[in-house]
Sequence to fold (888 residues):
Amino acid sequence: MLNYELQTENIDYGTQKLSLLVVGKGLTACIVTSAIEALGLCAVNTDDITPYSGLFHSCDQASLQSILEPLSKASFLSRTSLNATPLEIAQNGHGFSVTFDNGLQRTFSCVFLAVDTLPAPLPEGIPKEAKVFEPEIKNSLPGQSICFLLDYKEITDPAIGLSAIRTALDNQLAGGESVVILQHTPVKGFFGESLYESARIAGVKFIRFGDHQPKILSVNDSKDAAFRFRIEVKDIIQNGDDIIVECHEIFPAINPISTNVPAAFKKLLSDETDTNGSLIQDSVHCVAGKSFRRGVYCVGPASGCVDLIQTLNAAATNAVDAKFWVEQIVHNMREDIMTVSDQCVRCLTCLRLCPHMAISLKAETSRSSVIVSSSRCLECGICVAECPMTALDLNAFSEGLFIKLLQRLQDEGAGKHVVVFGCYRSAGRAMSVVQLHEEAIFFPVSCAGRLSESILSATVLACARGVLVLGCHHGNCRSNNGTDWAKARVESICGRLNSVLSNSVIVSYQTLAANEPARMVKIVNEFVGSTKQTCD
Amino acid sequence: MLRTDERKIMIIGGGIAGLAVGKSLSDNRIPFVLVEKTDELGGHSKSWACMATEGCLSCHGCLVYDYDDEVSSSQIGQIYLGHELSHVERSSKGNQKVRIRNIQNGDETELEVYSIVIAVGFDVFDPKEKSFWGYGRIDGVMTLADLNIIMRLDQTEKLNPSQKDSVDLAFFQCVGSRDKSIGCNYCSQYCCGAAIRATLKLIHERPEFHFTIFYIDLQLPGKTLPSLMDEARAKGVSFLQGVPGEISQAEDGKLQVLLEVDGINVAKEFDRIILSVGQQPPSSAALLSHILGAPLNEFGFFDTGTLADPARSAVGGVYVVGSCSGPATIEDSVLSAGRVVSAIIADMNEAR
Ligand SMILES: Cc1cc2nc3c(=O)[nH]c(=O)nc-3n(C[C@H](O)[C@H](O)[C@H](O)COP(=O)(O)OP(=O)(O)OC[C@H]3O[C@@H](n4cnc5c(N)ncnc54)[C@H](O)[C@@H]3O)c2cc1C
Ligand code: SF4
Ligand code: SF4
Ligand code: SF4
Fold:
């Protein structure tokens, strides 16, 4: 619960401790810096910034100019930077303590990763004389021809494709000749179709290939050195005719793969990389480059987004979220989420396991204590479930509620019910529109990660006929891996129960989303049915 | 001078875009009034099905429930369901007087708001507009929206009523998008991804389903969609470039289409055809545009001037968010909401 009584007008965002660190030196860093400052917050840059292109321009010239102009102003660029690379980023109170390679150490309220991409290497099959397409290339000389190759072996991101088509158009208008070879015309928003039209009208030649990849050869016989490349391609618009294109330059538009992410960030977000190696997960909660670590943001190519317009939006969205976070730090706005009892022996299991860096150790000479930051905690309950001393408890989903449940099961007698534990944000919401089987008791938890083995086995021992755990789908757990923890615990408990109790009680794990009420009913009915079979 | 807490923002439309604006305003303790014409928050995304297979496929369909909860429980937001905007008295300084009307009984409520966010979303294209697709006329032709509803109700067995061992289904992409003849010469953004995810989900549940996706160009932005396409290919989905001809029904009920393969016409048969319908400007756009003075673009969506500043309409103090300014995915809508809130905060700071 938030405290809304605050007046934020008199917060001095300029104080060192409240400033936001922006890591990066190119266009993405410029965009992030300006988004932060637009909200009256204070950005500190690791490096001097210049708006060189590291993002692809899916927009028209006029828009591009109006985006780049304020970012190129001397007054904006002449800000002083730290001129240092972060080596170590650690949680500190509510903010982050950052150690730099020049020995400097400073505290920041947030850290923004805004590094630009490195061009990808040329794919195999393309002569090494070719150059990977970058957002800004020089126009060719009149009479010279440039070929832009999209979708070679791998579908090109529409933002990169549009940027290439725009460059082709510029080149054509400047007196050169442009050929675009592609499989899929990129058509983002209203701009895509009109760009394609204008390029065609201006004389840019489009060739579309189907399942046969074009062949690119470098021409180095000195007789006809005018053209440096020859491309053999089957044009599916021309009935699959073989076409030969000769050109002076060829720019394959390739999706960037590697980003120059500082090692300190890789460490900070270690388990938050996606299937492509970009920082920030494929989780739906990482929309816009928000990470699972509160106060850590990732914008632009390092988060897998190479589009200029989308990056502007992501920077603004994250900056607004960061403002919220900074104000939370100032006012310590959230009510306590968790209680730490004096049973704690400071084994630091919780500190190690917390996926959100919400737990820290307050070192004191007499008796150090474990502190939970309510601003950072997402109530996944992983720590609560794994604490060997059961010293932790979530205030909103307390142990006391479980005890009541167990009491009820015992009172009603053996084998009457199955218990369905479900995450409140998936199963809990689906529950609000359905009626479950009368033999099923639904018990919402803050996250499936809260369900410890001891809770599960206590429920079994309290005479439940079966226990069904409904976690969120992998990749949609709000606390990232709570649902995976639940799965592992159910598997382990099944193993143990099978050896002790023969097969009479079933413990099972399934996943669900909030928009699957019908499926939830089916899963529960099937589960209730299966527990009946084993009982008979 | 008005204090922050005296400057209320009015959000018109409670779809994912309007909700995301509300959440973000609430986080930043800027009070808001949300006016939604239907009786429920959430907009279109509340009707879509979950596409998760082994794991979540990032369709973002369930996100709307999180935003709905945050907005509904906000202590500084007022929500008016079943209401629409009826009148605005603009003033260049301070608050504007607005009236909203209860659609049921016509009662009007007067409010004072500082600025207005248009979040009225889109309308789903109705393929009856072109008889060519046979929608509503031929059994077995449905839209992606219809398919979502079947999947959400967990009734995919309806897609194979006679319980055959093998069922052929086809997706037609760009239905009501990228079509000059009906004034929709734009891409609807969401449908290539949505079709691919739907094939993966359905194959996961019903291995007897076989899919063909007919497309003009595949639009796969971002980091997850290209790998999902590869996965769909690996699971046997065939991707065919081209717009098939008219759909007809054979005696046995099969759906027939003619298509050109390597210059030769061939007929193909399917059990079901799913039309990936596009996003159209919202029906309420014209009236709202009139009340607020915010212009529409050539397609009928709210005009935001340049791509460089997609948050502000041409009228001061009126912002535009989500799919009412052009086709958008849920992720796009959420991102544009952050942009709008950032613009609102910046404009408020400037006015101070
Ligand atoms: C079949 C289909 C499947 C889709 N699947 C996906 C998907 O898997 N992933 C994805 O990212 N996107 C998907 N989309 C796109 C997604 O639905 C949109 O991106 C999203 O709904 C846009 O949100 P919105 O808030 O802008 O608009 P909407 O969802 O349309 O919400 C607008 C809201 O405003 C209200 N409103 C309208 N007029 C007024 C008025 N005058 N006064 C007050 N209130 C008003 C409406 O009642 C509605 O609640 C799909 C779209 C379709 C058609
Ligand atoms: S896991 Fe439990 S005992 Fe160990 S430090 Fe954390 S709260 Fe204390
Ligand atoms: S597939 Fe879509 S609805 Fe299902 S969990 Fe993932 S984002 Fe949510
Ligand atoms: S997203 Fe794909 S199907 Fe939808 S309009 Fe664009 S190109 Fe057509």
About this structure: The CA atoms of residues 242 and 262 of chain B lie 11 Å apart.
